[in-house]
Automatic annotation (TrEMBL):
Pfam families: CotH. One of its GO terms (molecular function) is kinase activity. It comes from Anaeromassilibacillus senegalensis. The keyword Transferase applies. It comes from the Bacteria. This is CotH kinase family protein. Keywords: Kinase, Transferase.
Length: 483
C-alpha cells in the first residue's frame, strides 16, 4: 500500500504539472509554441502541396449546373477528396469578370466554391468550412496565384493555403484546378487563434459608383455609410464591431497615430508583394477590391486574394490596355498607380507619407528581393511546382490553352518575375526611376523587357480556342448520364 505522504506528493506533483500545462496552453505562443489551431487537420491533408490531390464532384445534373452557373446558386453534391466522400456539400460557380466572360464565351470551365456547411449545420472537411477551386482563367501557366501566395507567405502575411487538385465530375476527367482555403472561420482560427476578430471582403456594387468604402476611405461616423464592407462581413458584426472599424478608418484618414488603427508592419509587407506582382485588379487598381480586411481590437490588416490577373496581365482586360512590357515590368514601386487612384487609397498613400514607414517599406522590398529571388528560391519553387503539375496540364481536357502554350507561359512568368526583381532592385538603388513622374522624365531607363510578351500568360484569344475542347469534355461527362 502506498503511504499517504507519497499520495500527497503525487497529487501535488500532478497539480503542478496540470498548472504548468495550462500556462503553456495560455502563453505558449510567445514562447515559440504553435497555436492549437495553427495546424488543423485539413492543412496536412488537402493542402499538403507536395503532391497533386484528387477531387471528384458527384452531382446529378452537371449540364444543368453549367447552364445555370452564372446565377451563383448553391446546389448539393457529394465531394470525394483523395478517396474520402463528403455528402451534401454546397457547390456553386465563383468569380466576377472571369465568371461573366466564361459565360459569354460559351465555356464550361468555371472556378468553383465548395461549402461544407451550406446544407449541413457544422459540416466541414477536417475543420475547413469552405474552399474554392481556381480554374486558372487567363493564366496559361497555372502558377500565377500559387506563386503570389507563396511570396505573401514568405513575407509573413496571413495567406490562404493552396494546393493542386485533379478534378473529375462523376468520375470523368474535368481538369487541373488550384484548391484554395477560403478566408472564413477556419482560416481565421488558423491564423489568429480561437478568439479571432472580424473578417470582411469589401467589394463594389458597380464600378460606376465611387465605392469609397471599398477604398477604405472614411466617409462619416455612421456604419450604414459603409455597405460594401459590412454587407460583405464573413461573420455577424455587432454594433461595437462596426463602430471599431469605422473609428479605425477615421484614424487612417488623418494620417496620424496610424499604429493605433493599422498593423503597419504587416500592411507594409503585404504591399511589398502586392506592388511587385503588378496586380491592378486589386486595392491598388481602379477596381479597389480583391482583398480581405481583418479587424481585431480596432487594428486593421489587409490580406491577399485573387491573383489570376497579376504579373501585369490585368492590363489585357482594360479599355485602353498598356501592353508595353517595358512599361509594366519597370512599373514604379513608390507610386504603383496613377495619382488619382493613389490619393483614394489611404491604406497605402497615408502610410507612405511617413518617412519611417516609407523607409521600412523599402527595407522589406530589399529583404524580399534578396531572400526570395537573389538566392534562387523563386526559380526552385516555380520549377519544382511546374514539374509536379506538368503531366496533369498535358492531359487537362478543359484547359484554356495547349500544353505548348502552357510551357511558354511558365517560361514567360519566370522571365517576368526575374526582370521585375531586377528592375525593383535598380529602383531601390536609385538607378531606375521609382515614381511615375520619374519614368515619364526618363522613359528609356529600366531593364530591357522588350522580348517579353505578357499575352503569353493568358489572353482573350485563348478563350476562343478553348471552346471546342471544353464542349467535348462537357459532352463526355453528360454522356455518362445522371448518377
Amino acid at each position: 500500500m502506498i503511504k499517504s505522504a507519497w499520495i500527497d506528493r503525487i497529487c501535488t506533483g500532478a497539480a503542478a504539472l496540470a498548472a504548468l500545462l495550462a500556462i503553456l496552453l495560455m502563453f505558449g505562443e510567445p514562447l515559440g509554441l504553435p497555436k492549437a489551431s495553427a495546424s488543423p487537420g485539413y492543412a496536412s491533408r488537402l493542402f499538403n502541396s507536395s503532391r497533386v490531390h484528387t477531387i471528384d464532384l458527384q452531382i446529378n445534373d452537371w449540364g444543368a449546373f453549367v447552364e445555370n452557373a452564372g446565377k451563383e446558386e448553391y446546389v448539393p453534391c457529394t465531394v470525394e477528396i483523395d478517396g474520402e466522400a463528403f455528402r451534401q456539400v454546397g457547390l456553386r460557380a465563383k468569380g466576377n469578370n472571369s465568371l461573366r466572360l466564361t459565360e459569354e464565351y460559351g465555356l464550361s470551365r468555371y472556378s468553383l466554391k465548395l461549402e461544407f456547411d451550406q446544407f449541413i449545420d457544422g459540416g466541414n472537411y477536417y475543420g475547413l468550412d469552405k474552399l474554392s477551386l481556381d480554374a486558372s482563367f487567363q493564366d496559361n501557366s497555372y502558377l500565377k496565384t500559387y506563386m503570389a501566395y507563396d511570396m505573401m507567405a514568405f513575407m509573413g502575411v496571413p495567406t490562404p493555403l493552396c494546393s493542386y487538385a485533379w478534378v473529375t465530375v462523376n468520375g470523368e476527367d474535368w481538369g487541373l484546378f488550384l484548391a484554395v482555403e477560403e478566408p472564413e472561420e477556419a482560416f481565421a482560427r488558423r491564423n489568429f487563434g480561437k478568439d479571432f476578430g472580424q473578417l470582411y471582403k469589401p467589394d463594389y456594387r458597380s464600378l460606376k459608383e465611387e465605392n469609397a468604402d471599398v477604398a477604405l476611405k472614411y466617409i462619416d461616423g455612421d456604419p450604414d455609410s459603409y455597405p460594401n464592407i459590412f454587407e460583405n462581413a464573413k461573420f455577424k458584426a455587432s454594433e461595437a464591431d462596426r463602430e471599431r472599424l469605422v473609428e479605425a478608418l477615421r484614424v487612417l484618414s488623418t494620417g496620424e497615430n496610424l499604429e493605433s488603427a493599422v498593423d503597419v508592419d504587416e500592411v507594409l509587407r503585404y504591399f511589398t508583394v502586392q506592388v511587385f506582382v503588378m496586380n491592378w485588379d486589386s486595392y491598388l487598381g481602379r477596381t479597389g477590391h480583391n482583398y480581405f480586411l481583418y479587424e481585431e481590437d480596432g487594428i486593421l490588416r489587409i490580406l491577399p486574394w485573387d491573383y489570376n490577373l497579376s504579373f501585369g496581365t490585368y492590363a489585357l482586360g482594360m479599355t485602353n490596355p498598356i501592353k508595353d512590357s517595358n512599361v509594366l515590368i519597370n512599373y514604379p514601386i513608390n507610386t504603383p498607380a496613377e495619382g488619382e487612384v493613389m490619393r483614394n487609397r489611404p491604406l497605402y498613400h497615408n502610410l507612405m507619407k511617413h518617412d519611417e514607414y516609407f523607409a521600412r517599406y523599402h527595407r522589406y522590398f530589399d529583404e524580399f528581393l534578396s531572400g526570395y529571388f537573389e538566392n534562387g528560391r523563386f526559380e526552385a519553387v516555380l520549377r519544382q511546382t511546374e514539374k509536379r503539375i506538368a503531366p496533369y496540364v498535358e492531359r487537362d481536357p478543359t484547359a484554356f490553352c495547349s500544353y505548348e502554350d502552357h510551357q511558354l507561359a511558365v517560361d514567360t512568368l519566370e522571365q517576368v518575375c526575374l526582370l521585375r526583381a531586377q528592375s525593383a532592385r535598380g529602383q531601390l538603388e536609385g538607378k531606375i526611376p521609382a515614381t511615375i513622374r520619374g519614368r515619364q522624365e526618363q522613359p528609356e531607363a529600366g531593364v530591357d523587357a522588350s522580348a517579353v510578351s505578357l499575352a503569353a500568360l493568358g489572353d482573350f484569344e485563348d478563350l476562343e480556342w478553348a471552346k471546342e475542347k471544353q464542349d467535348a469534355a462537357l459532352e463526355t461527362v453528360l454522356q455518362k448520364g445522371a448518377l
